[in-house]
Amino acid sequence: MSASGGIGGGDSSSDPERWASLSGSDLSRELARRSTLSSRVRTSAPVRFSLAAAADGRQFLVSFARFWTGLGAAVPVNRLMLALIVAAYGLQGVCGRAMLYAGARMNQAILVGQWHRLITPIWLHGSLMHLASNSYSLWHLGPQAEALFGAERFLLLYNLRVGGNLLGLWMGAARSMSVGASGAVFGLMGGLAGHALRTYGVAGASQTLSSVSRILLLNLFIGSRRGSGIDNLGHVGGFLAGGALGVLLARGSPGDRSASRGPVWRDEPRDEPRADSTSAALGAVAVRAATVAVWAALALSTRDFAAMTANLRARGLR
Questions:
Q1: From start to end residue, where is composition biased (Basic and acidic residues) (predicted)?
Q2: Of residues 125, 130, 235, 301, which has the active-site annotation?
Q3: Which of 62, 119, 51 is nearest to 288 (CA)?
Q4: Which end of the chain has fewer CB within 10 Å, C or N?
Q5: Would 173 be classed as within a structural domain?
Q6: pLDDT above 90 as % of the chain
Q7: Is residue 270 part of a domain?
Q8: Is the pLDDT of residue 166 over 90?
């Protein structure tokens, strides 16, 4: 039976017996005749693989969003970050100098490709007093910042230690070395200051701005003393990055009560319409995407950090 005769038209194309009666060559020709460019593209291996990967990625993002929402409700993120830096200091006691040298910000090492050093200094501390100072600051500033911005925005602010490391990379000495969560703490301070500027006139905003300013100036003065060992570039960079992000994130944050308040520098109320639902939705999507990117960067940098620590220990550095 020919392909055209047996399959040509009508209801015969759906008759399994007629399809089964075709020889291999006739069946191949019939399938080729009926195949379209669209169907060939859809069933090609690269397209099927890409569609499956996209579906898996979407499922991962949905699952991660649910996990993050549940985690934020169960455990405040500021307390989670505090627990992580304390745990990391405990690991330093086990790994010794290998962990410190593998994760500290060293400008020369960053410039040759060790990008994880822009992130990992946030987990490391040079001494118990160093850890205690930053832990105390995070204990007191963390709840306030998270209450104002929410868990996701808090995570973005906290990881702006990267801003301080970038400023240190740009302006610091080639052989400089820096560790500590103080840049992250200053990022939170900058975020609080930015929020206060954005909501100036709301009860408590001016007091927050005044308090943050005093703490900033005091720390910069202490850090300017010769031999202090304090990374003022990291502090300033974290504060500036946090302040810029704080102004941007203030609108729509849980602590935003400024929809009907005046602009920065003024106490007088001013009518200011809220962002429409589309803008709010886009802002929420941008924050969620940035949060996922932060977690991905943390995971990748930790992987490289751990591998380098193991390598240095294998070479005898303790």
A1: 264-275
A2: 235
A3: 62
A4: C
A5: yes
A6: 10
A7: no
A8: no
Q: Is residue 144 part of a domain?
A: yes
Q: How many domains does the chain have?
A: 1
Its domain, for residue 152, covers: 75-251+279-314
Residue 262's pLDDT is: 40
Asked if residue 223 is part of any domain, the answer here is yes
Give a three-class secondary structure readout of the chain.
CCHHHHHCCHHHHHCHHHHHCCCHHHHHHHHHHHCCHHHHHHCCHHHHHHHHHHHHHHHHHHHHHHHHHHHHHHCCHHHHHHHHHHHHHHHHHHHCHHHHHHHCEEHHHHHCCCHHHHCHHHHCCCCHHHHHHHHHHHHHHHHHHHHHHCHHHHHHHHCCHHHHHHHHHHHCCCCCEECCCHHHHHHHHHHHHHHHHHCECECCHHHHHHHHHHHHHHHHHHHCCCCCCCCHHHHHHHHHHHHHHHHHHHCCCCCCCCCCCCCCCCCCCCCCCCCCHHHHHHHHHHHHHHHHHHHHHHHHHHHHHHHHHHHHHHCCCC
* CATH code (residue 146): 1.20.1540.10
Whether residue 182 lies in the annotated active site? yes
Does the predicted TM-score (pTM) go above 0.70? no
pLDDT tens, 30-58?
666 666 666 666 666 676 777 777 877 77
